[in-house]
Amino acid sequence: MLTVSNLSAAYGASHVLFDVSLEIRDGEVVTLLGRNGMGKTTTVKSIMGLVVPKGGAVTFNGKPVAGLAPERIARMGAGLVPEGRQVFATLTVRENLVATAANRLGRSDPWTLDRAYDLFPRLRERANQLAGTLSGGEQQMLAVGRALMTNPCLLILDEATEGLAPVIRTEIWHVIERLKSQGQSILLIDKNLSVLKRLADRHYIVEKGRTVWSGTGADLDRDSEQVQSYVGL
After folding, report:
1. Number of domains the chain is built from
2. Is 101 domain-assigned?
3. Which residue in 3, 14, 103, 224 is a FRET match for 166, CA 20 to 30 A apart?
């Protein structure tokens, strides 16, 4: 579904990515790991067209997308839950969800308001509340629901549970497990290795803008010292 090969990117004269490669197959949950500032979010932005790559290739559903406008990549089926949530603060929960609703890929079981509310019952309770007045956890639920309403074939979550209360983190993990069971392909950035080992099919680690390790959950355990040197504080 997604192949990133030898990706490089920069912000002006500041080179951030040098050689990032990863792959996501249909129905897989794949993680992108690494300490803060190592290039994870820039990789996501490069995939989504928010940063124009300097080199390398990004192929999405068999089509090259590096350098395309973000809205074109989104219409091809990439849905982003950005770091910091970035909900529309002055719109209600319901308005946030319907604002992005589309079924451009013609799914037979598209995401609807009722389906999003079933996934996150708290959003149903807050349907007419302004998004800016929600708690951080509720905003994260809304950001996930909003991305799902675009009916993506690939869902990207940047810092899926960062800064959330433990009970909300647990709810988000349960939702991701549920989405996986439904065949949703997911690229996931988070720091909770114990959950990620159980949940994800494969993992990639970036260090200083380069992919330095990849493997399964079993490989994470086998290479635990090496992995900890890349992702530990």
Report:
1. 1
2. no
3. 224
Structural domain span for residue 29: 1-77+153-159+184-233
DSSP secondary structure, 29-95, as one string: EEEEE--TTSSHHHHHHHHHTSS--SEEEEEETTEE-TT--HHHHHHTTEEEE-TT----TTSBHHH
Q: Supply the CATH number for residue 231's domain.
A: 3.40.50.300
- Specify if 165 maps to a domain: no
Sheet holding 63-64, edge to edge: 63-64, 55-60, 2-11, 14-24, 210-215, 202-207, 29-33, 185-188, 154-157, 78-81
Q: Across the 233 residues of the chain, what is the mean pLDDT of every consecutive 10-residue run? A: 96 93 96 95 96 95 94 95 91 96 91 96 96 94 96 95 91 95 96 91 96 94 93 77
Considering the entire predicted model, what is its pTM?
Answer: 0.93
Residue with structure tokens 């091809």?
76
